[in-house]
Amino acid sequence: MAEVKLLGTWPSPFSYRVIWALKLKGIPYEYFEEDLSNKSPLLLQCNPVHKKIPVLIHGGKSICESIVILEYLEETWPQNPLMPDDPYERAIARFWVKFVEEKGVEVWIKFFSSGEEKEKAVKDSLEMLKTIEEQALGKKKFFCGDKISSVDIAYGWMARWLEVIEELAGVKLFEPQKFPRLHAWMKDFEDEPVIKENLPGHDEMLVYFKHKL
Amino acid sequence: MAEVKLYGFWPSPYSHRIIWALKLKGVEYEYIEEDLSNKSESLLKYNPVYKKTPVLVHGDKPIAESLVILEYIEETWPENPLLPKDPYERAMARFWIQYGVDTVAALRAFYQGSGEELEKAATELLESLKILEEQGLGDKRFFGGESMNLVDISYGALGYWLAAVEEVKGVKVLEPSTLPRLHAWAKNLDELPVVKGKHSGL
């Protein structure tokens, strides 16, 4: 079995997506922590286009972009599937992954702006949460049913990172009573053993991101 | 065989992606042109999240977002495969498709810019496309090798769309002198029966 390496940074949620998938599938791997202010020759060699993490290296071949990596892991190690079997359900899963990829970034970046731009970011984020609450989650425990899937992994940053962003930006976006399904999902997601054991600490993250701002 | 319907918008390259994929796979479908200034009940029902085209409806099941639709088509009609078999090659294909998503901002800036902003946008777009040409396309005829695949489909509109915008802006980016291989790719793609004449003059 060719060896698997993961280049990542703590506490990037994109890094964690890949860690969660690797652990859920029981794939042994070697982790390398990257210093993004001083990128390693390996990172630059393996991701010459974007020079970003995460990068998965499997038997010497590198794969970049967290969602692309998730699809690769699913196809290469089919055990403990992270995507539904049925093509239509897979399409719905991919739709919701795309949704968070498109809308979620706004939360990260624009929250740290000010004035009108920040107000708009808050408004857009609330709409995003509303859509997820009303149309994505339904009555299931997780996005695709009773088990964690790639969709949950893609939304995983909401489980711990969202509250850190809210604190740093001084914005209270997520209220449990307004988003009961999402709130329940966050709890269920964090309670999953693999996730629970692989989440960065809230306080450590606050310190880390405060430093960066 | 459940029927296939495609809700599209003729000027939109995103709709064309789906048409090309369906035609390459020989899938029969009914095309419904949407008036985006007066969206149909069906569109709003089938795509409540974005209310946009294209939407594929298979049987009574709707799928929105062109790249999601392409993956669905590939899985549901495996004949004439549009993605490589090998998982690593598939990952590379998906990487370059994603790169195209990231390039939209550069294309938009070029489309909307004027004066100094336009020059800057043109330079940045050229840099983006250079990477695509050198590392994505390389010396291949198509991104899919000898024939087009989902990556070619995702970039398919680049040739004719960019040519139309270049004419309007009076600034050229995709030329034989600046991007020889990508320029040749766009020409080759335009000659394919599936693509040829499938886009109206913009």
From TrEMBL, chain A:
Domain GST C-terminal positions: 86-209
Organism domain of life: Eukaryota
Gene Ontology terms: biological process: glutathione metabolic process
EC number(s) per entry: 2.5.1.18
Alphabetized PANTHER family for the sequence: GLUTATHIONE S-TRANSFERASE, GST, SUPERFAMILY, GST DOMAIN CONTAINING (PTHR11260), GLUTATHIONE TRANSFERASE (PTHR11260:SF679)
Function text: Is involved in the conjugation of reduced glutathione to a wide number of exogenous and endogenous hydrophobic electrophiles.
Family: Belongs to the GST superfamily.
Name of the protein in its database record: Glutathione S-transferase
TrEMBL record, chain B:
Residue ranges constituting the GST N-terminal domain according to the UniProt record: 2-81
GO-annotated cellular components: cytosol
Top EC class of this enzyme: transferase
Transmembrane segments: none
Domain annotation GST C-terminal: ranges: 86-202
GO MF, one example: glutathione transferase activity
Main location: cytoplasm
InterPro entries: Glutathione-S-Trfase_C-like (IPR010987), Glutathione-S-Trfase_C_sf (IPR036282), Glutathione_S-Trfase (IPR040079), Glutathione_S-Trfase_N (IPR004045), GST_C_Tau (IPR045074), Omega/Tau-like (IPR045073), Thioredoxin-like_sf (IPR036249)
Entry's Gene Ontology BP terms: glutathione metabolic process
Catalysed reactions, as listed in the record: RX + glutathione = an S-substituted glutathione + a halide anion + H(+)
Keywords: Cytoplasm, Transferase
UniProt xrefs under Pfam families: GST_C_2 (PF13410), GST_N (PF02798)
EC number annotated for this UniProt entry: 2.5.1.18
Subcellular location field: Cytoplasm, Cytosol
Family: Belongs to the GST superfamily.
Annotated function: Is involved in the conjugation of reduced glutathione to a wide number of exogenous and endogenous hydrophobic electrophiles.
Name of the protein: Glutathione S-transferase
